[in-house]
Design goal:
By secondary structure, the protein is of the alpha+beta class. The chain has one domain. The strands form 4 sheets. The chain has a 5-stranded mixed β-sheet with strand order 7-5-6-9-10, with helices on one face. A two-stranded antiparallel sheet has the order 1-2. It has a two-stranded antiparallel ribbon with strand order 3-4. The longest helix is centred in the N-terminal third of the chain and has 51 residues. A hairpin with a 5-residue loop joins strand 3 and strand 4. The N and C termini lie far apart (133 Å). 25% of the residues lie in helices and 13% in strands. It is elongated and about 90 Å long.
Length: 289
Amino acid sequence: MLRNTVRQGPAHHACPQSGDDNRPRAFSLIELLVVLAMVTLLAAFLLPALARSKDRARTIACQNHLRQLQTCWYLYAGDNADVLPPNNSVYSLTSGSPLARGASWCPGNARLDVEPTNIQNGLLFPYNRSTAIYRCPADRSTVETPDGQPLPFPRTRSYNMSQSVNGWPEYDPQLSRYLPSYKKLTEIRSPAPAQLMVFLDVHEDAIVDSLFGIPAIGVWGDVREWWDVPADRHGQGCNLSFADGHVEHWRWRVPKRVPTLWAARPVPAEELPDYRRVQQAVRQSWSTP
């Protein structure tokens, strides 16, 4: 005789009580707000630090470009019987037209040059065939048409060479007397090589030709006006190279402004220390040794 039996399932098949629910619990609104506040606080601390790090990286890259140009400058003098690279590409402050065009470390107009052809025609290019070293990584300016309309192309050059470096020594004898310079590397005496600037980062609203001009005290007296204006892209500062080969970062007391392109800008009293600092880094007269 068969006996009917009832099979009971294991105990763990029983329905769980509500207190045993293991499903993930959602965040409450208060917890979400706390997390959001913490993320916002961290961003407030970290984003400025990240921006400063990026600015610092661009400054270091700019200084590296100047060191490479400075090396080219030395190599040129070594290959040319101590004669420094000519600095003959100069444009008028009033009309914007070329005043002197000839052999130069870099000819052309930085505001109009869409292609790096002028850089490639410069006398320093054979010593380093990278066109990138002529442009500051922090320079966000673009080229423009002759009538001033902006174009969506980055400029090819951000740097100028000081008037004290073989600027107009023979190309225009009449005008060159107003811009004292050294023709040979071994002639540099005053300022000394460690104080005589060679290349510098130029303000994007001021750069045109490749010669950085500033009134020399021994020729012009106490004239206080910017002919060309140094850049302040790097934390209100500028990078410069010097005749002994080193590179410096100068921080300015006053932000640099260029209200009018084709005119010399008077130097206000609060900016005079910046102006004098640059002015003292050029040869002051032809009579100085």
